[in-house]
Amino acid sequence: MAYSRKLADGQQCRVSTYDIVERTATVVHTSTAVLFEAPNWTRDGQLVLNGDGLLWTMAADGSAPPRAVPFTGLPDLNNDHVLAPDSASIYLSADDGHIYRGRLSGGPARRITGDDRMHFLHGVSPDGSTLAYVGIVNQQWDSGTLWTIGSDGGKSTPLTTGDGPDDGPEYAPDGGWIYFNTERFSGHAQIARVRPNGGGMEQLTYDERVNWFPHLSPAGDHAVYLSYPPGTEGHPADLRVELRLVVDGDWKAAQTLVELPGGQGTINVNSWSPDGRHFAYVDYPA
């Protein structure tokens, strides 16, 4: 979660896709004007990103440049946005602390959340009925906990309480787990998972690096996450970070795929392609 950012003088923003079979990365778009963040990947081969408080779409192969989605009546958006299962609608976190639902074609968007706390979206259940988000009260950014809410709104249900902070809750493709990162085990962010009813919490990574934003592939057989150097606090921008791959649920044998200048905005939300062969990410070389 972050408010709209801008590129520094001399800094670039590069949108890339990574092929986990060939183990190769391809830059599909470079910008020196807009700082793009947090790709999603649609069923029809589009990347969805945020930048300058707007939502953008572009061809995943880079054959067409980013285009701003023409929403009406929305506050500035941040980098927490997740596709609905139909891949035609999207849930959006805005800088006013609320979650909205809109069509990728644009137009009006409907607010889902109430005024109980700030809401930063990260997950949509496979059946589309429930959203998972980070809840922040009184701008206490270091005490975020996880919540769920019906995709049409209503009362929120706590998923985690106390300790933390927790972030990045995302449903497994079968809906059986919610994956997230938390400091509650070791005092620095590690990957964990919990049942959708809040039970059965398990720690998955056990290292000195600071690990954020686990994203499972559509088949659930791979996961990718963002890994910061030891001692990093929070999930800042513009550090030397790694993207790590987990195969067949073996989290203790994660493989480093890419080292890059990034962090915040690189891979905040799920960016796997529908076939599970590629994922998208953003880096920010200066």
Structure description:
- Belongs to the TolB family.
- It comes from Actinoplanes derwentensis.
- Pfam families: PD40.
- InterPro entries: 6-blade_b-propeller_TolB-like (IPR011042), WD40 (IPR011659).
- It is a single chain.
- This protein has a domain at 78-268: 6 Propeller (Neuraminidase), CATH 2.120.10.30.
- 0% of the residues lie in helices and 47% in strands.
- The chain contains no helices and 25 strands.
- The chain has strands spanning 13-19, 24-31, 37-41, 46-51, 54-59, 67-68, 71-72, 77-83, 89-94, 99-103, 107-108, 110-111, 118-124, 130-136, 145-150, 157-158, 166-171, 178-182, 190-194, 202-203, 210-216, 222-228, 239-247, 255-262, 278-283.
- The two termini are 22 Å apart.
- 46% of the residues are buried.
Give descriptors for this structure.
286 residues, mainly beta, Neuraminidase, four-stranded antiparallel beta sheet, 25 strands, globular, 6-blade_b-propeller_TolB-like, WD40
CATH superfamily of the domain at 78-268: TolB, C-terminal domain
Going across the biggest sheet, name each strand in turn. Answer: 3-4-5-6
Percent of residues in helices: under 10%
Known CATH architecture of the domain at 78-268: 6 Propeller
H/E element sequence: EEEEEEEEEEEEEEEEEEEEEEEEE
* Euclidean distance between termini CA atoms: 22 Å
Beta percentage is over 45%
Weakly predicted, low-confidence segments: none
User: Can you tell me the CATH topology of the domain at 78-268?
Assistant: Neuraminidase
Large-scale geometry: globular
Structural class: mainly beta
Largest sheet: 4 strands, antiparallel
What CATH first level of the domain at 78-268 would be assigned? Mainly Beta
Please, what is the average pLDDT? 96
Write down how many β-strands occur, each being a DSSP E stretch of 2 or more residues: 25
Cα-atom Rg, whole angstroms? 17 Å
Number of H- or I-type helical stretches: 0
Family: Belongs to the TolB family.
Protein name: WD40-like Beta Propeller Repeat
Organism: Actinoplanes derwentensis
Pfam families: PD40 (PF07676)
